[in-house]
Amino acid sequence: MTNIITINERINLQSSLDGGQAFRWHNNKGKYRGVIGNQVLTISNENNIIKIENNSMNKENLNKLNLKSYLGLGTNQDYLKIKYKDNKYLSKLINLNDDLKILSQDPWEVIIGFITSSVSNISKIKKCMNSLSILGGDRIGSSDYDYIFPDARKILDIGEENLRKLGFGFRAPYIIDASNKVINKELEIEKIIKYDYKNQLQSLTKVNGIGRKVADCILTYGFSRRDTFPVDRWVRKGLISNLGFNKNLNNEKLAEKARLKFKTDSAYIQQYIFYGEKTSL
DNA sequence: ACTCAGGGTCGAC
DNA sequence: GTCGACCCTGAG
User: Fold this and answer.
1) Do A178 and A236 fall within a single domain?
2) Nucleotides of C under 7 A from a protein CB
3) pTM of the model
4) pLDDT tens digits for range A41-72
5) Residue A198: domain span
6) Within 7 Å: CB of A230 and strand B?
7) CATH no. for residue A152?
8) Which of the listed residues A21, A89, A166, A256 has the most CB atoms within 10 Å of its CB?
9) What is the DSSP string of A41-107?
10) Residue A124 CA, nucleotide C11 C1', distance (Å)
11) Which chain B positions have some atom within 7 A of a protein CB?
12) Closest nucleotide to A21: CA versus each C1'
């Protein structure tokens, strides 16, 4: 039984786990506790080595490869520093946040998380997502937030009115729609990974409450795409103010342009810009 | 108490 | 393509 795993790589836990990609990691004195799959884990940095502890009630063996994949550790993005060294704005952001990693999370939870993100803020998204998992999910650990995220069936059992009571507001019917479309197979999550980008967007945006920006986030954080460039209010600001993009373009056009420019660097560049603009670096 | 804005999207025009 | 509506909550 492997209850502790160490990985000799670097990650900024704050910006990666709690910077707006994922909404259910809880910081307790620098250690981040959260759920991956059906296990409760605590992740910390000790002497520049990543330490992952299993805190589940029913512990299963930790799989190092899966954990590395979740944490975006398989690949190294140091090359970005060199590639963009002549761009003052980007090189500053890259160097300031060089241990920021893009996670590969459970697609369903990401779908609900980013539907919830619409005109909201990170702290409120976290509140909603945690309340929902507590109300509808199976408890798998001893702490308040140790729950598996509820599946579509369980969310339908909870119902729109209860989602509104939890604070989801006008997003509640969107979440019900996503759940319905999963149940009746209008949205087949396990198939989306095989589609090309255009069809992925088309499938996801069939769901009420998922537009281009939310779909791009879902594809990035839930389906491991890295050639996606979600454009929100912050990223729009960065692209226009600091990278010379045309302010007359709408967010979808900006996303297309940025995606063409940055190709498979897109997801990282986008996240650097998001993080940078939000913390006004 | 009141205004404002926060990882947008939808439907009507 | 543009515009108002949409829920709620914490900050000022």
Assistant:
1) no
2) 1, 6-10
3) 0.97
4) 999 999 999 999 999 999 999 999 999 999 99
5) 107-222
6) yes
7) 1.10.340.30
8) A21
9) EEEEEETTEEEEEE--SS-----HHHHHHHTT-SS--THHHHHTTT-HHHHHHHHHTTT-------H
10) 13
11) 6-11
12) B7
